Amino acid sequence: MDKSTMENSNEDLDLFRSIEYTGNGFYWTVGFLIFVIAFGLYGYFHQVLYGLGVTGMAQPISWGFYIVNFVFFIGISHAGTLISAILRLSQAEWRRPITRMAEIITAIVLAIGGLHPILDLGQPGRMWNLVTNGRLQSPLLWDVTSITAYFAASTVYLYLPMIPDIAILRDRGVKPKWLYQFLSWNWQDTPEQKRVLERAINILMIMVIPIAVSVHTVISYIFAMTIQPGWHSTIFGPYFVAGAIFSGIAALMIAMIAFRKIFHLERYLKLIHFQYLSTLLLIMSIIWFYFTFSEYLTTFYGNEPDEMRVFNYKFIGDFAPYFWLMVFCNFAVPVIILSFKKTKTIPGILVVSFSVLIGMWLERLIIVVPSLANPRLEYPVGIYIPTITEWGLFAAGVAIFILGFLMFAKYFPLISIWEIREGRESSIKEVAHRLQSYMPDTYEEDELERALK
Amino acid sequence: MEIKRRDFLKLLAISGAASVGGAWSARAILDVPDEVFQRVLNGPRLETWKNSICSMCPGGCGISVRLIDSIPVRITGNPQYPLNAGATCPLAEAGIELLFHPKRIQQPLRRLGERGSDKWEPISWEEALATISDRLNQLRLDGHTEKLFLVSRARNEMITDLSQQFMASFGSSNFSLLNQADILSPPIYLTQASDQPVAYDISNTDFLLNFGFDLLDEGPNPVRYNQLYVQLRNRKNPQPGRIVHASPYMSRTAVNSSEWLAIKPGSSGALALGMANVIIRDGSYDADFTENNSFGFSEWKDSSGETHLGFKELVTSMYSPERVSTITGLPANSIVAIAREFAAAKSAIAFPEKFQNAGANDLYNSFAVHCLNALTGNLNHEGGVLYPKALFAHQTGGPNRPSNHKHKLLEGIYDNGLLNVKDSEIDTLIFHQVNPLFNSSSPDQLKEKLAKIPLIISCTTVLDETAAFADLVLPEPSYLEKWEINHSIPTVGFQHFGVQQPIIDPLYDTRQFGDILLELSKNIQDPDSDKLSWKSYNEYIRDAAEGVYNSGQGTIISKNSNQTWLEFLKDRGWQALEYSTFAEFWNVLLAEGGWWDPISSKVRTDQLFNTKSGKFDFYSLSLMEAMNSYVFSPDNPIKNMEELLAKWSIHSFGDQVYLPHFEAPRFDSESFEYPYHFMSYRLITNNPDIAVPLGLAQELSGLNSREFWNPWLEINPETAKAEDIYEDDLISLVSSKGTITARVRILPTVMPGTVMMPSGRFGGALSANPAEILSTEMDLLAGSSSQIYTRVKIVKNPPKEKV
Amino acid sequence: MQESGNHRWGMVIDLNKCTGCGECVAACKVENNVAIVGAEESEMDRTMFWMDIITTHEGEYPDTEVTYFPRPCFHCDNPPCTKVCPVRATYRNDEGIVTQIFPQCIGCRYCMAACPYTVKSFNWFAPDWPEEMNSSLNPDVSVRPVGVVEKCTFCIHRLQKAKELARAEDRELREGDYLPACSESCPTDAISFGDLNDPHSEVNKLAKSLRAFRMLEELGTEPKVYYLSKVE
To answer: A49 at the C interface (CB within 8 A)?
Structure first.
């Protein structure tokens, strides 16, 4: 090992702590999470045995928690792309400690979200019909395609940048040796390998962005392609993508704050990273508000009877408490707390992130249920009371997410070690050079150019 | 393929085991239920059809039952049966559910333990019948045959006739019918002193004024009336008729009319009299009729020279539109307009309110309404009130009344008649297909009464509330497993009868009531008594059919049963189809399902009246006679007419008592304590006679209110606002008799200050029976219990034990 | 008259003749083996009515106008539900009937969410009839399993039977050969049914009447159930 490597390996011991040290807390947490997941699975088993009647859904509200959580979880997955791909693309250096966690979130949450429509099926055993008889005309099929593509892309996009880190772990002799041996794909840190990796990551980085945008757009199309009041709106595509990015950042920050605390990563995840991210969060909050306001003003102004029934149901009817809570959580709280330096601290940011997650979950609920509860024909307004099965599976979904994250942290570094090192070693020079190129040219540089021509 | 009872039960058991009810029961994940497997395994899927008559309500629609491998699969209407022309109501479709219901009684039962403890011992028919025969013979020996009471249901069935004959031959006149379907005879008796059945010629009328009878949901034949109403309002030639419904509630019948007039409860008679006032003053009444065919229209002098008030004087002096407006709540000019429309119509019908929906002044209301028909000359002519002949020769009265029954005004052997009988006067009480402990409005008092009766026998199909109180329970087959002749539905203008035959062999060890009576009659040891000689009930009804065959009239229903066509043929000398033997006639009758005579012979108007005057009595001498003779009857302790009138709560006096007039309704409590008025109404899909909630009927009952398996309370928006009640709230109604709890529906079809509730049997968690809180006010003259004078108060947020 | 494949089956409901009795609803349930869900499930709004009745109240007491609308599936010619089904479990056949293929349905309920008329029902549990009716199911219609969507099919099984009969008798399908249970059972003949493409059929004539209208026509779903508005 050369000197820099030695330095690095001593410097970044913190990053290996989660892998090499397993405390009691870990086992207790995992145990608890498994219990929650088992409870949820038991509920699902009941559902498969007896039918979807064990939920609170009925006519006309034939979609409930499962679809809400489907949209919610998939929404959170946008964190990965944004941070990872867009920041990488824009060469934002502050991304380095964040990208890995963002990518992890995407992978896990996509799996959870992608399984939710299966939870919602009346005949899950017939899922293969989607393949044999799938109709590309149906937005659900677009969903299936796009989520599969995104999942594939983001898993690869998670894996590729991890290869150097896995090699580091292999070289350190972390157990289980065979795992790291296998996954490191014989990485030897040669310039040739580095070049190929760089190429691959760059290609993926560009591919992943449109796929990610398509995923949530296509999910919004499930609603927007119907002619139901409250759903049939052209704004849904961008609205959902913005909302997804919004909730994704919030989820990412919660994960970052949590692991920073647990594994003492304060040296890596500094206040500045959170401040930049929370600025993004604030911007998304304002964008979210802009879309929401636009949507409802249009509805209100048009005053179409069926649309207004759904509108009133949200604004002053049965759903009013949820609606206004959502606005408070998604707009009031972020704007108030994040606009002032004094409150833009890590505890403040944590509060905002939770608030946004709750608000965004409510937003999904408010999109799905009111349009179904208010049929166009003269039927009484529907009532939806989720049952313990649905709550259980919701809790299980969250638990799987946390568990997935924890298990990942057990085997792989949460912060991309090689990228940190790269940043330390070469980025400062690169950035300085880049900044220099922005500055106005000096007379000497001008002459040199002319001479070379 | 014959399905034996044993095999059938196995079939049910196998399919039952695979599908236990309830949301959390074990269900197979397999796609195909056992039933289909059974079907595939068992049969060649042979489809057959059998005709019969439905008995889910008294209407008697003809049905055709589709059978697959001899299992009934669907009940549809018999397209040839003239009453319902191939249609049925939703309740008919639930007949199969009743046929196979698990709560059916499968063999005779004897009570073990206390009455009502629901402990039973199965016994044989021999034992059961021997018990009863012994008792009857004992009564004979003791000379107390009148201590046998038989209470049956008022249906248009021949069993009523046989029951009457049985009772007569045994020596008891204590035979009564509950839930009288016969709603029209009291006013006919008052005005015509005859029990002539009436028919209303709805198809040909120009104007139908319905004073509150919800004909589309209950009454003679709801299916037929649904059809008649629609035909009348869509008629092309002549132009459509107009239908106006005057009632305190906008029922489905009112919705299907051209106009609904909201009138206060119990004021239908007042409205009729107000109309009469206008018509008389306009001079647009049928003067020819009033002069030549009526009595008491104007002032008259009796044999002692005393002057008596006439209809004209009473009406014109006391029933001005202004006064009637305060009584009914209708604006005076509406009354004038309706009266003029009624009189001006070429033909018009005033249809009286159903008895049990009228108030404690029923009799006078329907009296007034019938007088309106007479006044405008609508008696006995096309488009008005018609008088078809009664069908069966041994009946002299209304078709569903016992044949030797003189009109039993004032004697109260109607709904709660039992309550008026002294304990010592009843020894043995037989209930046949009636459930007064559920339907009557004083079940607790009735229970107390029943406790004192030595022997109670219930002959019924399902173990209902009344049967649970009996000592002996005799199972009757359901209507799909028995023989019967159903005939002469009231208000239908032609003679008809339908044959009910078993469409499936009886599933259990059951016997028809007719067969039971014939068996009992054989066992009565008295060589002098005229026994009933028929060997079986089947023979009894065949005899009746043979009577019709011998008369040569009418025809078995067929595809060409079209009235005008048959009349056309008759005009040209064609006779009804001839059959060489009665046996042939009978076979064809069974195959087709019924018989009818579309050709009615006209009766001369003056032949319609059996009154002392020989004419239509506006001033009812029959009522006068009945009342006077009651004063002197040995059963009556009050020998003073004035006191008697007070006892009957009649607030008028003198001549007015025998003329149609307005008696203020009697409420059961005071309005300051109980501010709202409570009434119940019938849904076509829910018949309180049916002892178990049938799934199909329960779900269909909720179509309009979207409240399934449970009843609900309908309230006007104004009233709801005043009480701060919202849609779907759970509230309690408290009357002086009891409390019930149900959910609210706010509807503009209900009068302010009124609460409406559907009656019937409900099977959900919030099931409630309005009879529990309905008052027991009676029309003391006619003996019917009125159901619309209950006052209630509303209690919000009731305790949740029931929910 | 018309060759098979050129039919376009439609219905006309005369609101001046419908009395709201509910016989169409009952006949449909019995004919098509539609489950009776029971008291508890009914509380939760899970009743299954292929044919339903919508009651509307217009105006205040005492001048309220009450109308009963029998509401089957409207078998739209431009159905929103078939567009969104991911597995072609619901599709519009070439005679205009929007059918359900029960074995194909995966129970995602997207079609239920997409239908603007909310006509579809779902088997939240395995359909269960009162024990006593188990043996009395109609053998002509399949019984659905748990977890699939179902709706009015215009009694397509009766169409199949009518076609077979016509073929056996070597003739074309005639008007009146094929009627769904609701149309056949209506006591007042309020529901007419037939081939909209046949210029001589009753439904063709009635659909062109001045009184004819369809529900939510402005949505462009082209429903094939017409209503004739009330007179007077």
So the answer is: no
